[in-house]
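subagent[fold] <- orchestrator: predict structure for attached chain, return tokens only, no commentary.
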Amino acid sequence: MNKVQSKEIVGRGTREGATLFRDWFQDLTKKAEEGETAAYVFVMGSLAEILRVFDLPMVFPEINSLQTAVRHVADDYLDTAEDYGYSPDICGYVKADC
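subagent[fold] -> orchestrator:
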């Protein structure tokens, strides 16, 4: 394998994954702006295939939680949510960066 081939392969998953996430979030944002509904589901047992048949966009709270924790902004969102009256009793992995 030459250097060009190696460079194309190394980091490919990260690049393609970032594109998939960006497209997914842009689609969710567009649908929300258009007033369309979405299904809030858990990653495990979401019946995603059935929801996809009905063209329902899916929101996975666990994914959003992990993304905010990785970016070290979960604390800001949690404070705002608690200001709106949400319980401070949140799963530990959501508070990973707090």
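orchestrator: received. Logging for downstream: Residues 77 and 83 are 10 Å apart (CA to CA). Residues 1-36 form one domain.
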